[in-house]
Amino acid sequence: MRAILVGIWGKETSKSSTKESLKELEGLVEAVEGKSLGYILQRRDRPDPRYFIGEGKAKEIRQIAVGTNADTVVFDDFLTPSQVTNLERLTGKRIIDRNDLAIEIFSRRARTKEAKLQVELARLTHELPRLQGKGKKMSRLGGGVGTRGPGEQEIEVRRRDIKKKIHKIREEVEEIKLRRRQQRKRREREESDKKILKVALVGYTNAGKSTLMKVLTGRDVFTADMPFATLDTRTSSRYVSEDLKILITDTVGFIRKLSPELIESFKATLEEVSYADLILHVVDASSPDWLEQVEAVNLVLKELIEDTKPTVYALNKVDRMFKEEEEIKYLPHTALLDSKAIPVSAVKGWGIGRLIQEIEREGRKALELEKV
Ligand SMILES: Nc1nc2c(ncn2[C@@H]2O[C@H](COP(=O)(O)OP(=O)(O)OP(=O)(O)O)[C@@H](O)[C@H]2O)c(=O)[nH]1
Ligand SMILES: [Mg+2]
After folding, report:
1. 371, pLDDT greater than 60
2. Which one in 109, 141, 248, 301 has a CA-CA gap of 20 to 30 Å to 223?
């Protein structure tokens, strides 16, 4: 894929945050072995209903695409089915958005049965509304004005087919969920004499959740400098003191601007989060965009869990900002968060002792245990 990346900025977003977002989009393009040929930014407060960007800008993109020999134009925001159709017609290039890329990455990385099912579900729910435009196009080819063309009938069959598949996958996912619930119950029964604190590691993709999981529990999980390295939940444990054990679950990373369908399809995987007593929110403190990332994660969390849970922030990767462990207490970020925030470096092992102390303190409060 040789791609041109497109984003808008205006009333809702600043130019610099759109640029950061495009940089992130470039990372997604690279994750599917594509190459980004350049960014196009347009200032507009609201997307154009027909082309997302202005018609003039869309024509300009066509020329740039021809000049640079691009085969794909990637939009940083969610496109409507008709915007995709209109843009494809105008530019003659393949048009995709951030959400398409995320689905593509998920489907390449999914290993377990559950992850594969979730991805398939996301892909099908994403495809369903987009069939419409294709149906009209096919009918036009078949001729016939005002009547339902052969194309549209074909689409109708395909639509029914997809709906059936979605239904079947949902059932399979339910089964897996049930099994997991039983496992959890068994685990709880086996350990009922001990005090157990369930902690869910959540955070923006690439923030260092899995690396921190490794440091906290010693479990060797997969980590990598790429978006969505983790697509399954993994649980591991450690004792923080004689009478308190923590069960830590690593989860799928979040990213900005994903469609509700995609978030929905990962709800089952993220179910562990709703059972947690405590949320350990991992943040890449070295990212210029860290606060926006925190907000994006909290937005999804609000969808996943009804009530708010006690949260501890781990402000990770501070080794990129300070040379010595003693200096990390000067990290200014903590003041901007309303919950307890601990600067750490999972790679260097900095601040881990303090983090564990804080998890224990907040955990005891959550479980209503006495202090030791
Ligand atoms: N410099 C530095 N790099 C880190 C630190 N923690 C993690 N990393 C690196 O950041 C990258 C992502 O780490 P992961 O642990 O895979 O991140 P994740 O949050 O699990 O990411 P996903 O599973 O993809 O959502 C890896 O290259 C890590 O080596 C840290 O404290 N300092
Ligand atoms: Mg991970």
Report:
1. no
2. 301
